[in-house]
Amino acid sequence: MAEGRIGLVPALILAAGVAYAGVQVGKGIERFRLADRTVTVKGLAERDVKSDFAVWTLSFRRAANEFSAVQQALTADRERIVAFLRGQGFTDAEIEPRPLQVQDLLAREYGSERVALRFNGLGQVTVKSARVDAVALASNKVDPLIEAGIQLGGDEGGGPRYQLRGFNDIKPKLLEEATLSAREQAKKFAADAGTTLGPLKSANQGAIRILDDDGSDADTSRTIGKRLRVVSTFEFTLE
Question: Are residues 87 and 143 in the same domain?
């Protein structure tokens, strides 16, 4: 009878472990395998960081029936934009004027002969800077350019885009935090189940997601603040 009671102890311990694993679903404990005595846990790590580089492209357009008129207008607009950026404190090393483009709408192979203005021109000036706060501030001060008649817009004219070029410096620390989180959960599970945590059997570090500052991943390039998140999966043996 005594031997029967002794044999029940490991079974009860394992049963308690199974019950605990069920309660912990969604809290880090992903799976508990009775057969091979392993527990699989997920470690979550998050960190809010600030972008360290900005790219701001100011696109501008002009149209007229004379090629020279479009070219001269674009040149004048580009000079005003460069002067504006210098006035905002950006250096020539941070300002990149791009070549002007002028298109003859009547010269297109499938173009219509009925066009309001024959020549359509596009210009761009790009700011590339590690001073992200200065770029953000300047992007909200473009009213004088618009008042001067400069037609800002285009696909890249919607504001600055912010990058995290120091991502690789942060990555090891974030993965370390996820690993520690998973190990702590596994230790707690083992202790509550009346056993001890054994060696690591397998690991999947997972991919680090870059989110915007409110946790959305719709367009993370538009916000200076970013949130890094990683979920790593680890399988430990139980002794």
Answer: yes
